Amino acid sequence: MQNHSPTGFYSFFDSGTIGKAAEPARILVVDDDEIQLRLLITILEQHGYEVERASDGAGAKERVAARQPDIILLDVMLPDTDGFQLTRELKSKVETAGIPIIIITARAERDARIQGLESGAEDFLTKPVDHVELAVRVRNLLNLKLFHDLLRHNNRILERQVDEKTEQVRQQCIETVLTLMRAAEYRDETTGRHVNRISHYAVTLAERVGMNRDFREQIFYASPMHDIGKLGIPDHILLKPAPLTENEWQIMKTHTTLGREILSGSNSPFLAMGAQIAMSHHEFWDGSGYPQGLRGEEIPLAARIMTLCDVYDALRSKRPYKMQLSHADAVATITRGDQRIRPDQFDPELLDAFLSSEHHFAQVYGEIGQRSVGH
User: Does the N-terminal or the C-terminal CB of the chain have fewer CB atoms within 10 Å?
Assistant: First the structure.
């Protein structure tokens, strides 16, 4: 993935869209340790960011109220509060919930990481902070905020244009989806082919179980956004060519809630369904999935469709840590199970629909093996 300077952050898309193309990203650093504070400010300013500082929770809230930052670096131990509590306060308010927060602490235990993520923080760094890792985490979360700001901006446009023709609004929604997909593909060159195939698989299953034209169109554009939350996962975890550690796996699983945050709050039916899919496409019919452990029809239908499509395509695809399977072997794995996959993880009706249309899955994989979405 190419690196983008912070001053070009808001010009990643058309600069007229967000209206901040000439401004560097603003970062608020909150820490009562003057040495640590100066160190972080120096690192961030070297990367071209505009940095503000605060030494306690009250000062941080004043800074945020006066001028919202694009991201907050927050120490856990503060004189008047702790970083976890301050994170919960900021995330509980509509006006500040969208600000990404990186918690910084000397505690490296798994429980501290989980507590930070559960409080609503998007990321976690352990002291002493690695300069390169800090720059990468900040860059990734700024990209994540950009996508969220883009969606909020498009939502405001949709509200103002509520009386315009339905087709015009529909095309704007689709363009937003395609823009997000191009951003995801930009980070991982295999993503485009995967999400394009997913769209066709999902429509096939939706049609087999009798869903109407509107549902089929929505899932065609919504299903590629299932992993959009991975834009907020650090590169060293997302692109790791080996099995993840337990701590890394816990962070990886947050891509479901991150995806829902990116896509939620929209009037677009494509993005609304995309938020459902992003949140629940790792839930299983038998209740053994994540992040909520939903069971059966508690899982939205679009997400249940996505689960089966995603598993099939993952089995067919080569990864650094696994070989790809043939179509026949992938179907056998889904229907008979293996060490990780069991048939009772899938909606029985959808599993029957898959078996009656598996030839189409093979055809789609063969035809879209080299093409990528938007190309």
Answer: C
